[in-house]
Amino acid sequence: MNLTDKQKGITLSLIGILLITPDSLFIRLISFPSWHLVFYRGLIPFICLFVLLLIYYKKNFFHACIITGLPGIFFAILIALGNTTFIISIHNTNVANTLIMISLTPFATAIMSSIFLKEHPDKKMWLTITSCFFVVLFIFYDSYEGNRIFGDFFGLLTAFFVGGSAVAVRYGKIVNFLPALLLSKIFTMIIALLFIQSMPMLLEGKNTYLIIAMGILCVFLPMTLLTLAPRYIPAYEVEIFFVLETILGPIWVWLIVHEQPSNKTIIGGICIILIILAHTLSELIKSRKFNYF
Length: 293
Known about the structure:
The protein is mainly α.
């Protein structure tokens, strides 16, 4: 089956986001201090990516790392910072608040894409982003009653870091950024080690299985797919799928650890899912029509 670039980008984005949705649940279940958790979220994906890239590139491994250039370095820094701020946010506010902030990623990405890449979203995309933004405000108004400003602020930072990383990939779209993703995991470990007062805790008991599962299923695989997606579609179109995590993430946490979202969060979530579904179907239909001509 021959897929258009639009279809490839949407497929990679959708699968990547669906894989990442249980991430918050794993963080809730793992009884590790924040900086130790950040360290292992760098180490485990690093090992997986290193093996994958070594097998794929073989003798050209180091060359593949070098040709990403400055965009690759910026991408790695932004991803590492985003990994860090995400953990800090989850540990200082509830999951719904963090993911609501992250759902602003497409809004931030569209602005940065317009400024740095001159890729201006069409009216339909702006309408989709604006609609999601107002629904997020509706959810945020209900959930912003507790004293969680610190965690919310770091969640907002995560949205900008993730959005910036997608713009960097789009800027250098002719280059495979997976080697830069590998570098980002090194930066993530370095950041964690700067703040860890003792050596990282050894994996033991249930934490071993949870951290390995999280590192592979919720970090390595989705980040690989989401790093490839902006090669095929604009960065802001990739980031619109992050709004799905705003809804599905709290649902996972609600089902397993009973951190129940409010009725307004559920109502807003249904609205966001419908908005994204309508946008995705519209784009797929449009790309299929163009493919016929």
